[in-house]
Recover the amino acids of this structure.
């Protein structure tokens, strides 16, 4: 009995650590799933706007969803959203620069609304030429970063995401997967990197907010224990 009583405190010491690691892994998966479905939803809605205005054209045989979007677009956007949303807080921790600017859900929702507005403008607003539209969307995208992010890591990741996503899109269009009407930047529209930049900032903000919520929950559990 004495030995059993001596071993029980050791088990209690290991318990919270194992529980913490497990809960962090579970929360990471949950955040990834939430970000994936947010990306899928935004892809369906925003791609619908582009197709209605004939900005993007898909072959008739791949129009396969109720929102008239190619079946592979939402899963790809969802996966990219999950990666971006998990990457932003990870980079913040690695750099030792926790993001504290406007960390509340109301700010995140406003950021999403502005991003949807920028995408809507790219499809609905008529300009004399694509250069004017591209410059306007670039200013709006940088304004979104300044209003809801203002971090160097956020800006750098946004630029990297815009570059990588634009290259991938160029390759998809080049191989005939789909096409843009009136392309003026090789095979795509010149304003497309602005949309990708704003999208990266938006998903990064969502990911940061989810990570902050996770930290609060873990801290509360540790305090209760």
């Amino acid at each position: 009995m004495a030995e059993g009583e001596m071993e029980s405190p050791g088990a209690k010491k290991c318990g919270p650590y194992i529980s913490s690691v497990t809960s962090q892994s579970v929360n990471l998966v949950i955040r990834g799933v939430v970000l994936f479905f947010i990306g899928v939803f935004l892809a369906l809605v925003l791609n619908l706007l582009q197709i209605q205005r004939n900005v993007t054209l898909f072959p008739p045989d791949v129009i396969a969803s109720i929102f008239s979007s190619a079946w592979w677009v939402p899963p790809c956007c969802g996966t990219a959203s999950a990666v971006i949303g998990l990457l932003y807080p990870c980079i913040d921790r690695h750099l030792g620069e926790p993001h504290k600017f406007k960390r509340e859900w109301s700010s995140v929702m406003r950021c999403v609304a502005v991003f949807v507005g920028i995408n809507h403008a790219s499809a609905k607003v008529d300009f004399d030429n694509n250069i004017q539209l591209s410059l306007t969307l670039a200013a709006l995208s940088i304004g979104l970063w300044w209003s809801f992010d203002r971090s160097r890591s956020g800006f750098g990741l946004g630029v990297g995401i815009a570059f990588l996503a634009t290259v991938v899109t160029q390759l998809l269009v080049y191989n005939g997967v789909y096409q843009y009407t009136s392309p003026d930047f090789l095979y795509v529209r010149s304003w497309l990197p602005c949309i990708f930049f704003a999208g990266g900032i938006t998903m990064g903000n969502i990911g940061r907010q989810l990570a902050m919520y996770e930290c609060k929950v873990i801290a509360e559990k540790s305090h209760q224990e």
